[in-house]
Design brief:
Blueprint: H1 3-15, E1 27-30, H2 32-40, H3 42-47, E2 58-61, H4 62-73, H5 76-79, H6 96-99, H7 107-119, E3 134-142, H8 151-167, H9 171-186, H10 195-204, E4 210-213, E5 220-221, E6 224-225, H11 232-243, E7 247-252, H12 260-274, E8 280-283, H13 292-300, E9 304-305, E10 325-326, E11 334-335, E12 340-341, H14 349-366, E13 369-373, H15 387-400, E14 404-407
Parallel strand pairs: 3-4, 3-13, 3-14, 4-7, 7-8, 8-9, 9-11, 12-13
Antiparallel strand pairs: 1-2, 5-6, 10-11
Helix pairs in contact: 1-4, 4-7, 8-9, 12-13, 14-15
The chain binds zinc ion.
Residues 141, 143, 251, 284-285 line the site of zinc ion.
Length: 416
């Protein structure tokens, strides 16, 4: 399928109306913010035909808009000569969208909505969800579950660091290391095994989420100090989640991430434990390479990838969209972008909630999905201050707003 055919199919999903090649000559007046996108794309700069317009600075032909949309959704900047960070991932700081100041805008959705306005078509990507203006997709990566393993060694390390800090006259550091030792001495339950607490909190607000589990053969491996999927505690909790309406997906390891055999192996192991098919996958550390990772997910039989987001220092709209979309070129595979991730410590919960509110406002305007990623192991208020408070505040927002609903990711993919 070429770019323009892909755009037509997507446009029809968002509007219910078929646009045809007859429409390509339509001029779409765009805002100044949107016009920056075209200026940034060298190929489009050569192609596009722009005219002055009294209301807006610029207008572009619909086929140029369509090519621009498809370029962004297929992440051309990541596929062709990507700038990589030290971990070998695409470096978000080098992204054109971020550099243009569009990293916090669902700019692709805004652009398509503008096309619908100009062509006189309705814009309703959430038509399957009666009266809903936005869906909140809740998800959790399960990186660690075992705070009590190797604890005597870690006690030794923390006390050693406290001693060294004391020796160096660094009182606050010494207090911090010693405080860590004391708080871990006081735990009777493992603070990193917080599934029961997440389930209780989400049940209190009558919502469900997706938990992405790693699926490793050994708890201690090149991936670090993780867990095995056959650990009896993991087996119990995976079944409990599945039996009670939560979704389980694969959190594929960050090493050996380009091996199809290894990906299939992880998927099968987790499916054996869960007793259900794994539809979704998110890579640990978001260690994807495009388009190769999409190709692997497609071949391994996943229905969706949820990797299209940035780490917490950037946050926002990696593919310019807050709507799940079929991955161009990989029939049957969807990408569900996410916009916000937690941190181990949220120093300023007010700032995090304000960002949620800002994103929600933008996403309601384009009728999209705001997808969140909160780590399972960041629930304890001593280990991860601020995280639980932010999550609870978000759940309160969801309960009090009749225009939004919250769902696990796999629950809404079929409607896009
Ligand atoms: Zn992870």
């Amino acid at each position: 399928m070429d770019a323009l055919d892909y755009f037509c199919t997507l446009y029809q999903k968002r509007t219910g109306i078929q646009c045809t090649r007859m429409d390509w000559a339509h001029l779409i007046p765009v805002t100044e913010k949107m016009s920056v996108l075209f200026g940034a794309d060298r190929a489009l700069r050569q192609l596009h035909q722009h005219v002055s317009c009294s209301e807006h600075k610029t207008a572009f032909r619909l086929d140029d808009v369509a090519r621009c949309v498809v370029d962004i959704l297929s992440r051309q900047e990541e596929c062709v000569h990507p700038s990589l960070d030290r971990q070998g991932r695409y470096d978000g700081h080098q992204s054109g969208l971020v550099a243009l100041g569009l990293g916090h805008e669902p700019i692709v959705d805004q652009l398509m909505q503008r096309c619908a306005e100009v062509l006189g078509h309705p814009w309703n990507p959430l038509s399957a969800f009666d009266g809903v203006k936005a869906i909140i997709g809740l998800s959790h990566d399960v990186d660690r579950v075992d705070g009590f393993s190797y604890l005597p060694m870690r006690y030794g390390y923390w006390l050693g660091r406290a001693g060294l800090s004391l020796f160096g006259g660094q009182w606050s550091a010494a207090r911090r290391w010693y405080g860590r030792y004391c708080s871990w001495r006081s735990y009777s339950d493992d603070p990193l095994f917080a599934f029961d607490r997440w389930m209780a909190l989400e049940s209190e607000y009558d919502v469900r989420s997706t938990f992405f589990f790693m699926s490793l053969k050994r708890g201690l491996s090149i991936e670090g100090r993780r867990y095995t999927v056959t650990d009896p505690r993991i087996k119990r909790v995976v079944r409990q989640l599945v039996d009670n309406g939560w979704e389980v997906g694969l959190h594929a390891g960050r090493h050996n991430a380009q091996s199809l055999a290894w990906l299939k192996d992880q998927k099968r192991r987790l499916e054996d434990v869960a007793g259900v098919a794994m539809d979704g996958c998110r890579q640990h550390w978001l260690n994807i390479r495009l388009p190769e990772s999409w190709e692997l997910y497609h071949q391994a039989g996943f229905k969706y990838s949820s990797n299209m987001g940035w780490t917490p220092e950037l946050q926002g709209f990696r593919a310019g969209t807050a709507l799940p979309y079929p991955v161009p070129g990989f029939s049957g595979l969807y990408e569900i972008p996410f916009q916000m991730m937690d941190r181990m410590v949220i120093q300023d919960p007010g700032h995090h909630v304000a960002l949620f509110d800002t994103f929600l406002k933008q996403i309601k305007a384009i009728h999209g999905c705001l997808v969140l990623d909160f780590h399972q192991e960041y629930f304890d208020p001593i280990e991860s201050p601020g995280v639980g408070d932010v999550y609870r505040t978000i759940l309160q927002r969801i309960r009090s707003d009749t225009e939004i609903i919250a769902l696990p990711l796999g629950a809404f993919i079929a409607d896009f």
